[in-house]
Amino acid sequence: MTEATTITALTRLGRRLLPVITVASIGFVGWVAVGNFNQLADLRPRSDALAVSVLFAAIYGGALFLVAENWHRMLRVAGGGGLGRRRNFGIFADTQIAKYLPGNVGHLLTRHFRLKGEDRTHAILFRAFLFESAAMVVTAALIAGLFLSLFPMSDSQTPWIENNPLALLIGAAVLIAGYAALIFRFRAAVAEVTAALAALAVFFALSGLAFYGISKLIVPQAGPGLAGLAVIAWIAGFVVPGAPGGLGPREAALLALSAPSLGEPAALLAIGLYRLTTLVGDLICFGVGRALLRGPP
Length: 297
What we know:
With 297 residues, this protein is an all-alpha fold. It has helices at residues 3-35, 37-42, 49-77, 85-96, 106-116, 122-150, 165-185, 190-218, 225-239, 249-262, 264-294. α6 runs antiparallel to α7 and α8 crosses α9.
């Protein structure tokens, strides 16, 4: 199966799963929201909650360029060197908004074919996509485990991570094995791969802390372990085909994980603000991408 055929197959799979997984996830969140309608109306977040959420959105929008840094470096590891960081960042940011198209692969396909037109082969781009995706999932899992190990949640829904050093050791072993494979199999520079993974680690830490900060505005006693739950929910939204921008699966997973600690009404409000924050952050990233593409390569 060629790379182009594989991408086409992923697109078809996303379209078929969209009505099932995404609608079911949104339905679950909606059902919980209806059941908590009166309590939601009684919630009184801090008066500056919206302003702080805008600040988090700006931070998130900037942090997305750490993901772009991972893509830029993985593209070079895969054999796609040549384009400068400004051009790669611009194309990455300019196509991010396409992830809200049905299938959750629109940004990947758009980016792929944009770069294919700039003398990158399908093989190089597909290999970079695999490197990028694997690095993101494994790094996210490791950061989530780190948060939950350092800050265990009350009424935990993740006992398989919290207070379980074996889970972190397994995650670290997988990350190190992948790191070594990239370096030795593809003769990648140690600095290249290290910088890519470090950029991702900072992104996931900031992304998770944004949800923790929003939750703190609503429930003052909210704990920083919520950052780890947000990163787990990100993984759910990322790996499920068919969800535009992870919409549905991410919210359903985060609701199931955070409600025991925050309570369902507060969790629903925090999750809604968090989605708004990431959406505005994506738009900021998109705007910066457009500006970058207007300049020289």
